Amino acid sequence: MLGLEPRFDLDSAEIDRAFLARAASAHPDLAGSDGSMSALNEARRILAEPERRANALLALLGGPSPEQCRDLPQGFLMEIMELRERIEDLLAGGDASVRASVEREARARRDACVRAVAEAFASLGDPPDPTALRDIRVQLNAWRYIERLIEQLGD
Amino acid sequence: MAYHQKVIDHYEHPRNVGNFGTSEEVKQRKDIGVGLVGAPECGDVMQLQIKVNDETGVIEDARFKCFGCGSAIASSSLATEWLKGKTLEEGLQIKNTMIVEELQLPPVKIHCSVLAEDAIRSAIRDYKKKNGIAEEEAQSA
Q: What is the predicted pLDDT for the residue at B140?
């Protein structure tokens, strides 16, 4: 996407540079069309968000979709349920400092997901082993629950 | 997004929220079946507990806890209402399509009703397993 090499470990400056280089020629005011500009915007949106980028990369490498593999790490659902009940109890007090610490904890969990997935992508062989791709899917499935928690904390 | 009035009603006044004890406590109780399920599409998580009369096989009470969108909460709330007073076998007859119809869920929210059906099946399976009741083989339609 955006002419970038397919890997997870991309920084936002790299993505922006690639986007701008292409946007110059795709813009409808210049030589491009609305269609090519919106495709570029969509590509940037996917690449800029680590979870979307990871899902797109896994699909590109031929890994399973969430529909094809719904598995989670052993015990994860129980862990997330307990975490969410604990957070619900904590937030019931309505204390702003508690909310801030809960949000920090949730973001720390997201960072841990990003690191683990980055490591898993980096250690894939060529061609990638199907079992390793499936393991990444399981990690991404778990990651979704953490993103969902963060989304709902923002509501 | 415009939710149907029934979804809003369940969301604002969810029925039977909670549990019959901590996860360790209910694990020890043979009269309680627990279903814990998640939707990988959205990251919603739902727990359903059923309390069964072991003589009659009737689900006497049900509780749920759901961290998800309005439709997921409404689907699980409705499921607890429907389960009460049903036998285990009748409970297994509850299908996600019935929930979709009752709550008028739009296509993008169908997976919420699937989650509720999964939770029902999983809670009933847990109760049967605890009580040594054989699972019926999946019947071909």
A: 46
